Amino acid sequence: ETGVTQTPRHLVMGMTNKKSLKCEQHLGHNAMYWYKQSAKKPLELMFVYNFKEQTENNSVPSRFSPECPNSSHLFLHLHTLQPEDSALYLCASSLDRGSNQPQHFGDGTRLSIL
Amino acid sequence: EDQVTQSPEALRLQEGESSSLNCSYTVSGLRGLFWYRQDPGKGPEFLFTLYSAGEEKEKERLKATLTKKESFLHITAPKPEDSATYLCAVQAHNQGGKLIFGQGTELSVKP
Fold this sequence. Notes:
Chain A has about 110 residues and is mainly beta.
């Protein structure tokens, strides 16, 4: 596989469930990102990891918990979500966070909270 | 505050009807401006990076230009397969790779 792969593509969960989103990149990059995309709103950066270390948390509620075990994998653990958390969650990677090279995105996980 | 505004929000063109999309930005030291294309149900696909005013990049029917305040994405003789949402994002110096995105322009090209 090449590029950035996200699983699952779609997820429906209740507010009391716990689930995880997975992202894997095969580009040899060292920086990985989580973004939230809601309808009619710009992409919002959530978290940044550089060489497995979290370098930015953009005031994200604690019900979202990221994990980056290595430079190729990124997870977003979800628990006790709210209806307003329904959105497309996008993962991206780039050479490293200090680079001005482009970020490359996966196709996202469409999350629906019942 | 760093900001990106794209216009128009939506654009409908006939096949072959050339036009331009606008991306206006305010940023404290531009490191790079990025254009992406996003199809429904897909993630953004990278198109171009522009680094300094006066720079231009081309790819098939698309041409991106950059000034100190805005970028244009010119579409020449578009085809229906060019229909998508086009996103503009800026990266500022000393922001650790953070991209600030505009809301996008939804382009529809009718045959």
